[in-house]
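Notebook entry, structure prediction.
Reason for the run: the old model in the group folder had no record of what sequence produced it. Starting over properly, with the input documented here first.
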Amino acid sequence: MRKTESSSRPTLLDRCLLAAVLSLTLAACGGVQQDEGGDDTLGTQEAGLSVRVRLMAANTTSGNLQSYDPGEGIRIFQGTRPDVVAIQEFNYGDNSASAIRGFVDTAFGTGFSYYREGGAQIPNGIISRWPIIAAGEWDDNQVSNRDFAWARIDVPGPKDLWVVSVHLLTSSSSIRNTEATNLVNFIKTNIPVGDYLAIAGDFNTSSRTEACFTTFSQVVTTSGPYPADRNGNTNTNASRASPYDHVLVDSDLRAYQTATVIGASSFSAGLVADTRVYSPISEISPALSGDSGATNMQHMAIIKDFLIPADTVSASVTVGSPNGGESWTAGSTQSITWTASGVTNVKLEYTLDGSTWSLLTSSTPASTGSYSWTVPSSTTTTAKVRVSDASNSAITDTSNAAFTITTSGGGGTAQVFINEVLANEAGSDVNGEFVELVNSGGTAADLSGWTVSDSTGVRHTFASGTTLAAGKALVVFGGALGIPSGVTNAVAASTGTLGLGNSGDTVTLKSSAGTTVNTTTYPSSLSGTDGVSMNRSPDATSGGSFMLHTSLSSLASSPGTRANGTAW
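New structure, fully documented this time:
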């Protein structure tokens, strides 16, 4: 395997040049730099801030192939929202660059960068919200199928964060101490003492008194208190009997450790993420209670949070949805979305009359970017939402225009949108491709002459007299043979095919007048799994983002029913 040595700390000019070169390198292996643009931002301020950094150690593969394919580990990532992950057994799909990039996009987000060691059977890696400005691997001469993967991360503030992802041997404590000794030597030789350091991963340690911890204490702190689950258990292997997994940081970073806060729950020393005992499980949705007990699940993920000093940054929030013109049904569940920069938590409010504001939540993490809202049971044409920095009300944004709230059962307007798409049909039966439409409005929609298209052209035209009732769904399949038995709210594509691309495509719904009603462009990461659809999250919400159906329920798809399989 390759052994890569780091250089001395670069100057500002060196770092700019290095970042430019590395952005090309990371693009080749899937790293993407996040675009933070936005034109309608209000309440932008320059402020000196502390930035929350959530570090995770994760050997959470399940199934029989030491891979994240089954999805349980992915849901744990999505529910706990780490910023930087030291990941072990970093395998997914065929391990191509596109497969790994798709995994990172789905589990963490398209703005995350990653490094994955090459030539390893069960590789270590690092995944980061912030740019990785250098990365490589140091030889673990005690094992043949992985090394020590490291990454230098440009976290906010004056210092870089170095993360080393490790997977020590199960053989014996003496071998693990040899591995620790070798790694400490690499760290002392290559990592500037002024930067932050984290050693994280699967140590396979049977106790916290093993010699390797004394060795590691030369460069990181190993003392308690230790992360624990909801019941106070600090052990991390599948049977919860031994402390296999750790996030160990140097004294500089340890000084900034803070409680791990998820929803209304707070874990003072960090979290052992065991979904079987986490309550309420809704706080880490879409994770399911059985995910940590999946077949051959390796270990529990370990989380520690830190509030590090940041540079002076431009803090801002911007409302995404509802931003004006939407029509939402009273009592329905919708997503309020926003983007934020330099903000830790946001406050959410709404108005029904344009002047009187009601509080939804005084504080929710800004990084989530969305909040599930049960729309009030009041009709109005003057509703708006407001998103503000929870600690600075001057940083705020409001819907650009009013949106409408209607009651179901008549008198409102129809709102039809694409809710679910299956582009990669099970097997090779293209009849099974489908596009599901949902009407979340208050009245039925006349679909006569409406069309469903992909990027090639029109694939289906609805027959005259076709209607979609309020609160119901209608599914267009590639062919009549693809319509499952018992599904009555479905039609076959009028052209005989939908022709949806497995490597990405655009699906567009247009009215009979040719006006675009709804459209979505999906990436290969949402269409690359045979038989698994992409679905709005939350289900049946026009503003929801698309994600793999298996992240929402145990079903691979749900044409003609809700995501959980229940009737509309």
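Summary: The chain has a mean pLDDT of 87.
The old model has been moved to the deprecated folder.
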